[in-house]
Design brief:
Elements lengths: L4 H12 L5 H11 L3 H12 L4 H7 L4 H24 L5
């Protein structure tokens, strides 16, 4: 059920990076702060294209619980990335 931190961070960082290094690192750091469960759900949903029903079956839970957890996981990423983007960048 787990998604390796490095795999999701690599994929998210690669797709989100617009500034060669710092944006990718910022995204990797944010992804690394997620719980294993949230990281795995985001990976399955956004990179493997699985539905919330499919993810629910894999995690032995219901569809609404997956929607709830995905919402909170994405919110946590958003909060972390906003906070990180407010910090001055070192070039």
């Amino acid at each position: 059920m787990k998604c390796p931190r490095s795999e999701l961070a690599r994929r998210v960082g690669w797709q989100a990076a617009t500034d060669a290094g710092s944006d990718a690192n910022m995204v990797r750091d944010a992804v690394a702060q997620l719980s294993d469960r949230h990281r795995a759900m985001i990976y399955r949903s956004h990179y493997l294209g699985r539905t919330t029903t499919q993810i629910a079956a894999e995690f032995s839970t219901d569809d609404d619980a997956v929607k709830h957890e995905l919402h909170h996981a994405l919110r946590a990423l958003q909060t972390t990335l906003r906070s990180a983007s407010d910090r001055p960048r070192v070039r």
